[in-house]
Write a structure and sequence with these properties.
Elements (H helix, E strand, L loop, with lengths): L6 H15 L3 E6 L2 H4 L19 H4 L2 H6 L1 H16 L5 H12 L5 E6 L5 H5 L4 E2 L2 E8 L5 E2 L27 E5 L8 H12 L3 E5 L11 H7 L3 E5 L11 E3 L3 H15 L1
Parallel strand pairs: 1-2, 1-7, 2-3, 7-8, 8-9
Antiparallel strand pairs: 4-5, 4-6
The structure holds 2'-O-acetyl adenosine-5-diphosphoribose.
Protein backbone atom coordinates (compact mmCIF):
# COMPACT_ATOMS: atom_id res chain seq x y z
CA UNK A 1 0.00 0.00 0.00
CA UNK A 2 2.83 2.36 0.92
CA UNK A 3 4.27 2.05 -2.58
CA UNK A 4 1.07 3.52 -4.05
CA UNK A 5 1.23 6.68 -1.97
CA UNK A 6 2.97 9.75 -3.33
CA UNK A 7 6.19 10.88 -1.65
CA UNK A 8 4.50 14.26 -1.06
CA UNK A 9 1.68 12.64 0.91
CA UNK A 10 4.10 10.55 2.96
CA UNK A 11 6.12 13.69 3.73
CA UNK A 12 2.94 15.48 4.86
CA UNK A 13 1.96 12.53 7.06
CA UNK A 14 5.43 12.58 8.65
CA UNK A 15 5.09 16.31 9.28
CA UNK A 16 1.66 15.77 10.87
CA UNK A 17 2.99 12.92 13.03
CA UNK A 18 5.86 15.09 14.26
CA UNK A 19 3.47 17.91 15.14
CA UNK A 20 1.02 15.58 16.90
CA UNK A 21 3.67 13.71 18.87
CA UNK A 22 4.82 16.99 20.43
CA UNK A 23 1.37 18.29 21.42
CA UNK A 24 -0.84 17.61 24.35
CA UNK A 25 -4.46 18.40 23.57
CA UNK A 26 -5.89 17.00 20.36
CA UNK A 27 -9.44 17.61 19.11
CA UNK A 28 -10.73 15.44 16.26
CA UNK A 29 -13.90 16.23 14.30
CA UNK A 30 -15.19 13.51 12.00
CA UNK A 31 -17.83 13.59 9.28
CA UNK A 32 -19.52 11.19 6.88
CA UNK A 33 -16.25 10.63 4.96
CA UNK A 34 -14.75 8.58 7.79
CA UNK A 35 -17.56 6.04 7.42
CA UNK A 36 -17.43 6.00 3.60
CA UNK A 37 -14.91 3.15 3.50
CA UNK A 38 -17.26 1.14 5.75
CA UNK A 39 -19.83 1.37 2.95
CA UNK A 40 -22.03 4.20 4.28
CA UNK A 41 -22.66 6.81 1.57
CA UNK A 42 -21.78 10.41 2.45
CA UNK A 43 -24.33 13.22 2.21
CA UNK A 44 -22.68 14.59 -0.94
CA UNK A 45 -23.04 11.20 -2.70
CA UNK A 46 -26.13 10.91 -4.84
CA UNK A 47 -28.78 8.75 -3.19
CA UNK A 48 -29.53 5.40 -4.79
CA UNK A 49 -32.46 3.05 -5.41
CA UNK A 50 -35.88 4.15 -4.24
CA UNK A 51 -34.45 7.41 -2.95
CA UNK A 52 -32.43 8.52 -5.97
CA UNK A 53 -34.78 11.43 -6.69
CA UNK A 54 -34.55 12.84 -3.17
CA UNK A 55 -31.84 14.97 -1.61
CA UNK A 56 -30.85 14.42 2.03
CA UNK A 57 -31.19 18.17 2.65
CA UNK A 58 -34.87 17.98 1.63
CA UNK A 59 -35.70 15.04 3.92
CA UNK A 60 -33.68 15.83 7.06
CA UNK A 61 -35.78 18.83 8.11
CA UNK A 62 -38.59 19.42 10.62
CA UNK A 63 -40.71 20.86 7.79
CA UNK A 64 -40.33 17.72 5.69
CA UNK A 65 -41.45 15.62 8.68
CA UNK A 66 -44.42 17.92 9.38
CA UNK A 67 -45.45 17.78 5.71
CA UNK A 68 -44.97 14.06 5.16
CA UNK A 69 -43.93 12.13 8.29
CA UNK A 70 -44.31 8.76 6.54
CA UNK A 71 -41.85 9.76 3.83
CA UNK A 72 -39.19 10.96 6.28
CA UNK A 73 -39.69 7.97 8.62
CA UNK A 74 -39.36 5.49 5.73
CA UNK A 75 -36.19 7.23 4.59
CA UNK A 76 -34.66 6.81 8.04
CA UNK A 77 -35.78 3.19 8.26
CA UNK A 78 -34.06 2.67 4.91
CA UNK A 79 -30.92 4.42 6.18
CA UNK A 80 -30.97 2.27 9.33
CA UNK A 81 -31.16 -0.83 7.17
CA UNK A 82 -28.22 0.45 5.12
CA UNK A 83 -26.08 1.12 8.19
CA UNK A 84 -27.09 -1.88 10.35
CA UNK A 85 -24.48 -4.34 9.11
CA UNK A 86 -21.64 -1.85 8.65
CA UNK A 87 -18.50 -2.16 10.73
CA UNK A 88 -15.61 0.17 11.61
CA UNK A 89 -12.84 0.62 9.06
CA UNK A 90 -9.10 1.18 9.74
CA UNK A 91 -9.67 4.92 10.36
CA UNK A 92 -12.18 4.29 13.18
CA UNK A 93 -9.90 1.60 14.62
CA UNK A 94 -6.77 3.79 14.49
CA UNK A 95 -8.59 6.64 16.27
CA UNK A 96 -9.90 4.30 18.98
CA UNK A 97 -6.43 2.84 19.56
CA UNK A 98 -4.92 6.31 19.74
CA UNK A 99 -7.58 7.50 22.18
CA UNK A 100 -7.17 4.41 24.37
CA UNK A 101 -3.39 4.56 24.39
CA UNK A 102 -3.14 8.33 24.89
CA UNK A 103 -0.84 8.67 27.85
CA UNK A 104 -0.92 11.29 30.59
CA UNK A 105 0.75 13.83 28.37
CA UNK A 106 -1.87 13.57 25.61
CA UNK A 107 -5.63 13.94 25.59
CA UNK A 108 -7.77 13.21 22.53
CA UNK A 109 -11.35 14.50 22.36
CA UNK A 110 -13.35 12.93 19.56
CA UNK A 111 -16.36 14.80 18.18
CA UNK A 112 -18.48 13.46 15.33
CA UNK A 113 -21.20 14.77 13.07
CA UNK A 114 -22.08 11.18 12.22
CA UNK A 115 -25.19 9.48 13.53
CA UNK A 116 -23.82 5.96 13.04
CA UNK A 117 -22.11 4.17 15.94
CA UNK A 118 -18.95 3.03 14.19
CA UNK A 119 -16.67 5.04 16.51
CA UNK A 120 -18.25 3.30 19.52
CA UNK A 121 -18.04 -0.07 17.81
CA UNK A 122 -14.31 0.54 17.35
CA UNK A 123 -13.97 1.32 21.08
CA UNK A 124 -13.87 5.14 21.10
CA UNK A 125 -15.52 7.54 23.50
CA UNK A 126 -17.22 10.07 21.21
CA UNK A 127 -19.47 13.13 21.41
CA UNK A 128 -22.26 13.12 18.83
CA UNK A 129 -23.22 16.58 17.58
CA UNK A 130 -26.02 15.47 15.26
CA UNK A 131 -27.73 12.78 17.32
CA UNK A 132 -27.96 9.03 17.07
CA UNK A 133 -29.50 6.99 14.27
CA UNK A 134 -30.45 4.21 16.68
CA UNK A 135 -32.52 6.36 19.06
CA UNK A 136 -36.06 7.66 18.66
CA UNK A 137 -38.06 10.34 20.42
CA UNK A 138 -41.49 11.92 20.25
CA UNK A 139 -41.75 14.81 17.80
CA UNK A 140 -44.27 16.55 20.12
CA UNK A 141 -43.36 16.00 23.78
CA UNK A 142 -39.70 15.00 23.05
CA UNK A 143 -39.95 11.95 25.37
CA UNK A 144 -37.44 9.25 24.40
CA UNK A 145 -39.14 6.33 22.68
CA UNK A 146 -37.55 3.34 24.30
CA UNK A 147 -39.08 0.50 22.33
CA UNK A 148 -36.70 0.83 19.40
CA UNK A 149 -33.89 2.47 21.28
CA UNK A 150 -30.47 0.94 21.93
CA UNK A 151 -30.04 -2.45 20.40
CA UNK A 152 -31.67 -1.51 17.13
CA UNK A 153 -28.39 -2.15 15.43
CA UNK A 154 -28.56 -5.86 16.27
CA UNK A 155 -30.15 -8.54 14.14
CA UNK A 156 -33.60 -8.18 15.73
CA UNK A 157 -34.29 -4.77 14.26
CA UNK A 158 -37.60 -4.14 12.64
CA UNK A 159 -37.40 -1.71 9.78
CA UNK A 160 -41.14 -1.23 9.67
CA UNK A 161 -42.09 1.81 7.65
CA UNK A 162 -45.37 2.46 9.48
CA UNK A 163 -45.36 5.47 11.74
CA UNK A 164 -45.18 4.96 15.49
CA UNK A 165 -46.97 7.14 18.01
CA UNK A 166 -45.96 8.32 21.45
CA UNK A 167 -47.58 6.46 24.38
CA UNK A 168 -47.71 9.77 26.34
CA UNK A 169 -49.12 12.30 23.87
CA UNK A 170 -49.89 10.43 20.64
CA UNK A 171 -47.36 12.52 18.71
CA UNK A 172 -45.40 10.88 15.90
CA UNK A 173 -42.11 9.21 16.78
CA UNK A 174 -39.04 10.54 14.93
CA UNK A 175 -35.37 9.64 14.91
CA UNK A 176 -33.34 11.40 17.60
CA UNK A 177 -31.27 13.24 15.00
CA UNK A 178 -30.54 16.94 14.59
CA UNK A 179 -32.23 18.10 11.40
CA UNK A 180 -31.37 21.18 9.34
CA UNK A 181 -32.58 24.28 11.18
CA UNK A 182 -32.59 22.56 14.61
CA UNK A 183 -30.30 23.30 17.54
CA UNK A 184 -27.47 20.98 18.47
CA UNK A 185 -27.70 19.19 21.84
CA UNK A 186 -26.40 21.80 24.32
CA UNK A 187 -24.07 19.55 26.30
CA UNK A 188 -22.50 17.97 23.22
CA UNK A 189 -21.94 21.41 21.69
CA UNK A 190 -20.35 22.69 24.91
CA UNK A 191 -17.96 19.71 24.93
CA UNK A 192 -17.07 20.38 21.29
CA UNK A 193 -16.53 24.12 21.80
CA UNK A 194 -14.38 23.55 24.90
CA UNK A 195 -12.26 20.93 23.14
CA UNK A 196 -11.82 23.09 20.02
CA UNK A 197 -11.04 26.26 21.95
CA UNK A 198 -8.42 24.57 24.14
CA UNK A 199 -6.70 22.17 21.78
CA UNK A 200 -3.18 22.38 20.39
CA UNK A 201 -4.08 20.53 17.21
CA UNK A 202 -7.49 20.22 15.54
CA UNK A 203 -7.94 17.37 13.05
CA UNK A 204 -10.84 17.46 10.61
CA UNK A 205 -11.51 14.05 9.06
CA UNK A 206 -13.97 13.30 6.25
CA UNK A 207 -16.14 16.36 6.48
CA UNK A 208 -17.09 18.75 3.68
CA UNK A 209 -16.90 21.64 6.20
CA UNK A 210 -20.13 23.00 4.75
CA UNK A 211 -22.56 22.49 7.61
CA UNK A 212 -22.48 24.92 10.54
CA UNK A 213 -22.09 25.22 13.45
CA UNK A 214 -19.82 22.12 13.33
CA UNK A 215 -17.79 23.59 10.46
CA UNK A 216 -16.96 26.59 12.68
CA UNK A 217 -15.08 24.46 15.23
CA UNK A 218 -11.88 24.48 13.14
CA UNK A 219 -12.03 28.29 13.01
CA UNK A 220 -12.52 28.46 16.77
CA UNK A 221 -9.48 26.23 17.27
CA UNK A 222 -7.40 28.30 14.86
CA UNK A 223 -8.36 31.58 16.59
CA UNK A 224 -7.09 30.09 19.82
CA UNK A 225 -3.73 29.18 18.35
CA UNK A 226 -4.23 25.55 17.30
CA UNK A 227 -2.71 24.00 14.19
CA UNK A 228 -5.24 22.49 11.79
CA UNK A 229 -4.84 19.16 9.98
CA UNK A 230 -7.39 18.04 7.38
CA UNK A 231 -7.79 14.47 6.10
CA UNK A 232 -9.95 14.36 2.98
CA UNK A 233 -9.23 13.06 -0.53
CA UNK A 234 -11.12 16.04 -1.98
CA UNK A 235 -10.67 19.78 -1.46
CA UNK A 236 -12.97 21.58 1.00
CA UNK A 237 -13.74 25.30 1.54
CA UNK A 238 -11.66 25.15 4.73
CA UNK A 239 -8.94 27.76 4.09
CA UNK A 240 -7.25 27.68 7.49
CA UNK A 241 -5.63 24.26 7.20
CA UNK A 242 -1.92 23.95 8.06
CA UNK A 243 -1.41 20.38 6.86
CA UNK A 244 -3.64 18.74 4.24
CA UNK A 245 -3.53 14.95 3.99
CA UNK A 246 -5.35 14.42 0.70
CA UNK A 247 -6.14 10.71 0.90
CA UNK A 248 -8.82 8.44 2.28
CA UNK A 249 -9.04 8.38 6.07
CA UNK A 250 -8.70 4.58 6.14
CA UNK A 251 -5.32 4.93 4.44
CA UNK A 252 -4.02 8.03 6.23
CA UNK A 253 -4.97 7.25 9.84
CA UNK A 254 -3.07 3.93 10.20
CA UNK A 255 -0.05 5.52 8.49
CA UNK A 256 -0.20 8.52 10.79
CA UNK A 257 -0.34 6.22 13.83
CA UNK A 258 2.64 4.24 12.53
CA UNK A 259 4.76 7.39 12.13
CA UNK A 260 3.70 8.69 15.56
CA UNK A 261 4.64 5.36 17.16
CA UNK A 262 8.08 5.55 15.53
CA UNK A 263 8.62 8.96 17.15
CA UNK A 264 7.68 7.88 20.65
P1 LIG B 1 -20.53 15.35 3.70
O1 LIG B 1 -21.25 14.27 2.98
O2 LIG B 1 -20.96 16.76 3.51
O3 LIG B 1 -18.99 15.32 3.31
C1 LIG B 1 -18.26 14.13 3.32
C2 LIG B 1 -16.81 14.49 3.07
O4 LIG B 1 -16.06 13.30 3.19
C3 LIG B 1 -16.52 15.06 1.67
O5 LIG B 1 -15.77 16.23 1.79
C4 LIG B 1 -15.70 13.95 1.00
O6 LIG B 1 -14.70 14.48 0.13
C5 LIG B 1 -15.07 13.28 2.20
N1 LIG B 1 -14.72 11.86 1.99
C6 LIG B 1 -15.28 10.94 1.19
N2 LIG B 1 -14.69 9.76 1.33
C7 LIG B 1 -13.71 9.92 2.26
C8 LIG B 1 -12.74 9.05 2.84
N3 LIG B 1 -12.66 7.78 2.51
N4 LIG B 1 -11.90 9.58 3.76
C9 LIG B 1 -11.96 10.88 4.14
N5 LIG B 1 -12.86 11.75 3.62
C10 LIG B 1 -13.72 11.27 2.69
O7 LIG B 1 -20.53 14.92 5.22
P2 LIG B 1 -20.42 15.83 6.51
O8 LIG B 1 -19.38 16.87 6.33
O9 LIG B 1 -20.31 14.90 7.66
O10 LIG B 1 -26.14 16.50 9.05
O11 LIG B 1 -21.83 16.51 6.53
C11 LIG B 1 -22.16 17.33 7.61
C12 LIG B 1 -23.60 17.17 7.95
O12 LIG B 1 -24.39 17.47 6.83
C13 LIG B 1 -23.99 15.75 8.34
O13 LIG B 1 -23.77 15.45 9.69
C14 LIG B 1 -25.44 15.74 8.05
C15 LIG B 1 -25.40 16.45 6.71
O14 LIG B 1 -26.55 16.93 6.28
C16 LIG B 1 -27.28 16.00 9.57
O15 LIG B 1 -27.74 14.91 9.28
C17 LIG B 1 -27.88 16.91 10.56
Amino acid sequence: MLAELSPALIAHVQKAAKLLAAQQRICVLTGAGISAESGIPTFRDKQTGLWENYRAEDLATPNAFARDPELVWSWYQWRRQLVADKTPNPAHVALAQWQQSASNHQQLTLITQNVDDLHEQAGSTVTHLHGNLWRNRCSQCQAPYEDQAQGMSDSNIRFDESLLTCPHCDGYIRPDIVWFGESLPAQAWQTAEDAAAHCDVFISIGTSSLVYPAAGLAQLAKQNGAKIIEINPDPTPNTIVDITLAEKAGVVMPLLMKHMAELS
